[in-house]
Every structure is written in structure tokens, then in C-alpha cells.
Amino acid sequence: MADSKPNTPPPGEPSAAQMKRVLIPTVAIGVVIVLIAVITSVTSGSGRAMSDGSDGSAEDSGLKEIAAGLKIRDLKEGVGDPVPPGARVKVHYTGWLTDGTVFDSSKEKGKVPVEFPLDGVVAGWREGIPGMKPGGIRKLVISPEKGYGNKASGKIPAGSTLIFEVELVETTPGPRPRRTPAPTELNKLADGTLPTSDDSGLKPLGDGGLKYRDLKVGDGPVAPAGAKVVMDYTGWLLSDGSVFDSSWKPGRDPLDMGLDGLIKGWQQGVPGMKVGGIRKLVIPAALAYGEAGRPGIPPNSTLVFEIELLGVK
């Protein structure tokens, strides 16, 4: 529920330039080539040893195949929770061709780790990094079909097998899966109550008339003010209980955008929620669409929302 242009997609989160040069999927090869043309910090050499001095070749006998075209070896075991699929990670990395040419390295660029969602990189990384723990270092040997296939990418020739050393600095879990089964009756909240019902469990939040009740307290990270969040939601008019919007409608996806771009009732009502939680918000018109209203929402309408927090970015 955006404050002024609800149907305008939020601006995309920019990726680190150095990741765009190496790890963007094949569909964006054209962008990769342009970036490599203007960023020249690739070096060549004959050594392929890992940082611990161990075998850096693609024929390393310690490698374990975890999927077709993908082999790994852990040089150092990390500590903490393993990276789940689809998580957002921050890493240092170096990449070699099989002849020992270093085609990219975050450590050669001021030792600045790069951050990205695993869903946005080549299959070799998407499948090879889950399971690592923070502080861990892993060697990846990625076949062409898990990398860039038969297309060249800058200093990476077509059909190249790639060798990476990846150090996991930190990770942020990706969004939770959506609730299953999906709600089919949008006239009620998750606890079975009607949006128009008297609710003695509502509590004030701030001094602007906003009220809330947690239908379910989450068990994940807490959403801070201004965070980018992933949420399922349904919105009703308090006056008659009619649904004016819902991410659960057929063909819709969860809302994925920053709280700063949403109505004030969400900016104030979502922070403090934990991932996995479900919250009811009763939002006065002054914190929603005020005297102007919007299509489907009459002027001066009090709104009722059910929000399920799936992720915090």
C-alpha cells in the first residue's frame, strides 16, 4: 500500500559492480561485457593455490560433487547457522580459470566484501554457497553449464570451467515461504475474526490513533523502522468489511519494498514485528489516505490490515 503511487514498482536494489562483472546470470551477459570494458582490475598468473596453500586446480582430489557440474571443498569450517537457499550473503571471493588466470577478486579491490541475494547469481554459486557458515571458506569448481555456458563474459572464454574461493562474511536469511494453504476467504482475518468486529485486544501504537494486535508473534529478525520488507497482506474498510486490496489475490506476489514508501500507518505499525509474525492494524484516515481517499477507498476511511511479515532485508 504505497502512499501516493501504489502501482509503481519500487526502485530496484542496486547490485555491487564487481558482482555484476562476474556473477550475473547469462541473460545479462551484455551488461557484464560493458562493465568489464570500463573496469580493468583483472590480473593473470599461473598459480592456482588456495589461500591455505592447498590444491587450487579443478582436478583437486579433495573435491566433492554435490550436484551435476558442481564440486566443493571446505577449506575452513565456519561457526553459526548454515546459509539457507535464497539467503542474502556478504562474501570475499577470488575466481580463476583452469589455466590459473585470476579473472576477478574482491580482495584485489580494497578488500571490500560484496553483498547479494543468492537467487540473483549463477547456478554454481546459488547451489554451492548454501550450507556454509559465517567465517567459513569454500572452494567451488563450476562447470560451464553452472556458470556462463557457451557464451564468453569479459576475460572468461566461452565454455569455461570456473574455480572460486569464497569466504562467507555474514548472511541474512531470505524471505520465509508463504503461508500454505493460501487463504481462500478474504473476508476474515487469520484468527477467524471479522475486520468489522469489536476487538478488545487492540492496543494503541503511538499517539496518532493507530492500533494493533498481534495474531501471531514471529520468531525471526525484528523489522526496524525504514526497513525493506517482504509481506503478505489484506486490507479492508472498517465501515463495511469490504476488501480493497490483498496480496493473496490470484496472480499476486508478496509486497517487497521499503517501509518509507508506504502509508504512515504501515511505517509506524510494522516496525517491531518479527519475521513469521502476523499483525492486525487499524489505521485512521490521517495515517492512511486522508480526505483524498483513493480508488476503492472513500475519503476519510479507517482501514483494517492483516500483515504477515515474511522477510526483512
Order of helices and strands: HHEEEEEHEEEEEEEHEE
Structural class by SSE content: mainly beta
Biggest beta sheet attributes: 7 strands, antiparallel
Count of runs of 4 or more consecutive helical residues: 4
Mean pLDDT: 87
User: What gap, in angstroms, lies between the N and C termini?
Assistant: 18 Å
DSSP strand count:
14
Radius of gyration: 24 Å
Helix content: under 10%
- The share of residues in extended strands comes to 25-35%
Overall form: elongated
Low-confidence stretches: 4-22, 24-46
Task: Give your account of this protein's structure.
The chain is mainly beta and 313 residues long. The protein has helices at 17-20, 29-38, 123-128, 264-269; strands at residues 64-67, 70-76, 88-97, 102-105, 114-117, 137-142, 162-172, 203-204, 211-216, 228-237, 243-246, 255-258, 278-283, 303-312. Strands 1, 2, 3, 4, 5, 6 and 7 form a seven-stranded antiparallel sheet that branches. Strands 8, 9, 10, 11, 12, 13 and 14 form a seven-stranded antiparallel sheet that branches. A hairpin with a 5-residue loop joins strand 10 and strand 11 (243-246). The two termini are 18 Å apart. Residues 4-22 and 24-46 have low confidence and may be disordered.
